[in-house]
Amino acid sequence: MSIISTKSGTLPKRFLRLRAIEPIYFILIAIVAAMVLSNPIYLDYGPMMQLLRRSSPLMVLAVGQLFVIVSGGFDLAVGSLITFLILICALLLNGNPELAYFAIALCVLVGLMSGAVNGLIVSFWKVPSIIATLGMLLILRGGGLYMSGGSARGNLPDTFRALGRDSVFGFPVSLIVVIVFGAVAWLILHRTSFGRQLYMVGSNPRAATLSGVNVAGIRIAAFMFSGLSAAIAATLLSGFSGVSTSAGDGYELQAISAAVLGGAVLLGGRGSVFPVIAGALALHALFTLLNIWGFPKPMRDVVQGLIIICAVAYSARRK
């Protein structure tokens, strides 16, 4: 067996390879195993696919949040953006299937515009991202409630909700969306000059500027990608949640929790797509496990807070 010398002694190469694997994969396996032991129904194909379908919006949203976190910021507006898009599309469509594709395109456009505004405020007005996106959160929440009269009105046709509820040969369409979106995000982040510049901006914006990187443009693009992920998550979530004034509540913190679970560093400069997707799935599976064990819903907030604190502490110590 090959041995490698380290400051603390000698370690087998096999052990070093094991240490290189992101911890979230082991956490996910442990949570799923606990779910199966607590309720064997999750050994069946149907319930497991339903679990994956319901976690799809969070997986997409966490990938978008990753881009902002890698750039050194936060996007707290995505949850309210999801609610805003669902409420507005319900009013616009009101059950009319002929406008469904137009409404989806509108969601994408509004998501990109919302992200662009956040990026512009952060980049040119020098407002901290947590403050800028908190303001956008309040604007979107208030605007959605005002336009809908403070209650869920209208109806979403099946053609609009198809991405979130339909299946192809027993495989959820929402998972296909996650796979495609995740693959595109991975290519952008890990195989393009934009991705390399995004890591540079998150690690050291001053050095990135001196290297000729358009820091403002990179940050704006990161926020726009987060807005796009919120638009996609809204269409997926509407498939099984319907129209609600609280459809996206809490998703912004869940996306951040999933990102840090997946190894993203909240100070920027580090993170990868597939571990973050695994983090989102692990978080949703953990919430499901808590429900199986009979824990009340407020325990989710406690768990998310512990996850963020522990993940940040772990990242700081690892760094």
Can you walk through the features of this model?
With 319 residues, the protein is mostly helical. The chain has one domain (22-318). The chain has 14 helices and 4 strands. It has a two-stranded antiparallel sheet with strand order 1-2. Helix 3 crosses helix 12 (251-261), helix 7 (158-165) packs across helix 11 (215-241) and helix 12 (251-261) crosses helix 13. The longest helix has 27 residues, at 215-241. The model has no long low-confidence stretch (mean pLDDT 90).
Taken as a percent bin, the fraction of beta residues is under 5%
| Average pLDDT metric | 90
Name the structural class.
mainly alpha
Distance between the termini: 29 Å
Radius of gyration, rounded? 20 Å
Annotation, overall tally of beta strands:
4
| Principal-axis shape | globular
Main sheet properties:
2 strands, antiparallel
Helix content bin:
over 70%
Output the number of helix runs. Answer: 14
Enumerate the strands of the largest sheet in spatial order, edge to edge or round the barrel.
1-2
Q: Uncertain regions: pLDDT < 50 for 5+ in a row?
A: none
Q: Which sequence of SSEs, written as H and E, runs from N to C?
A: EEHHHHHHHEEHHHHHHH
Number of domains: 1
Indicate the topology.
Blueprint: E1 3-6, E2 9-12, H1 13-20, H2 23-38, H3 45-70, H4 78-93, H5 100-124, H6 129-147, H7 158-165, E3 167-168, E4 171-172, H8 173-191, H9 193-203, H10 205-210, H11 215-241, H12 251-261, H13 273-292, H14 299-318
Antiparallel strand pairs: 1-2, 3-4
